[in-house]
Sequence to fold (99 residues):
Amino acid sequence: MSDVMPEAGAPPMSTPEEPVPLGVERTPTGRAEVDVVLGRLADADRLPADGHIEVYEDVHRGLRSELASLDARPAAGPVPTPSHRPHDPHHHPHHDNRS
Fold:
């Protein structure tokens, strides 16, 4: 069995007993679907660092899915309708009134 000693001046190697939450606050976006996906980030606070990547990848997939769904949905708001010009008895689009 070989013991590896830390170099002189190096801090002793220790592992924390439990993950320490980062305490990053998340501001709601106003879109429930996105807020649910972002809420998953809180799971990283309960995991050791090597478990964060899975959470981040899951959140990234969820956000990409939400963005893609925006492309598939019809645009919100009123549908534009063509405007019609009131009838002008002096306007004749087929006649040239120049002299």
Summary: The first helix runs from residue 32 to 39. The chain has a mean pLDDT of 77.
